[in-house]
Amino acid sequence: MDIDSLKQRPADHAQLTYKLKNANVYVSKDEFHFTYYLDPVMEIPSELDASQLTDTESSYIETQLQANLNKFKNQADLLGKYLSLRGAKILDIGCGGGLFLSLLKQKGAQVTGIELSDSRAQYAKIKHGLEIDKHPIESNFWQKRYSQHFDAVTLWDVIEHVNYPQQTLQSAANVLKSGGLLLIDTPCRDSFYHQFGEFTYHLTLGKYPTFLNAMYSSHLFGHKQIFSTAEMQMLFEVVGLEVIDLHKFHELSFPYEFYLKKLFKSQMLVNLLLPAVQIFFKIFKIQNKMLVIGRKKQ
């Protein structure tokens, strides 16, 4: 299955299955779920526009995007289990505000980030003193200058956002040294949230997609595809990576209120539900994401 080809002409290879608030989701005969929307990545200037970092953007990065400090600490600790961090060359694709790279830098790693958002890239530079670049990983900038250069490449909550995921993974694998590591986490389609969303969508004839509305978006840098564990296993193998770990786990990238606002427009309803949601997730750790670690074949 070449999923990138499916996305170029979706109507020829897949069926429009879910009509959501912010996206139309196609499903191929092999069950790959994706939207028709593609970001104009090649139109994004590679020069950083520092003026985009406003007080509002800084507040969002600090209170929402990087609110879950334990998440970033866990990611740094995880990489440290597989790789000696001191002196290691590490590239984080879609590095956001740079907190993950900052933690690695403190451990002695040589870190570089790719971030297409001007505000987030500027924040990472001035807040954490990081080297951030806006060239996409698929560009010649990375593919020619940094071929087989990095000890590890990470894509945390990124692969679901990219236009052509197979090309992105292949490009990431190309800049890895032989034996280098690629680490990804991403929402998982064979999980409760997606499956419950599909159930409610079909049960109500599309009127109440519940979680599906929060999982796909045909907006700039929105969620364009949600993978199953089997699809991700296949993709790693196709791009020349041996999967050394693949498992589901529970993690929410944003505060609970962020997701409730996506599901319900009423702030009063959000405030009413928030305490119950917090208690629920303390008791039930629903596995909603997958972690995949691959090693570049010798």
Structure explained in plain terms:
With 298 residues, this protein is α/β, with parallel strands linked by helices. It contains 13 helices and 11 strands. It has helices at residues 3-8, 10-13, 55-65, 69-82, 99-106, 118-128, 140-145, 165-174, 192-203, 212-215, 229-238, 256-263, 267-283, and strands spanning 14-19, 24-28, 33-35, 89-93, 110-114, 132-133, 150-156, 176-187, 225-226, 241-249, 289-296. The strands form 2 sheets. A 7-stranded mixed β-sheet has the order 6-5-4-7-8-11-10, sandwiched between helices. A 4-stranded antiparallel β-sheet has the order 1-2-3-9. Helix 6 links the parallel strand 5 and strand 6 (132-133). It starts with a helix and ends with a strand. The relative contact order is 0.14. The model has no long low-confidence stretch (mean pLDDT 94).
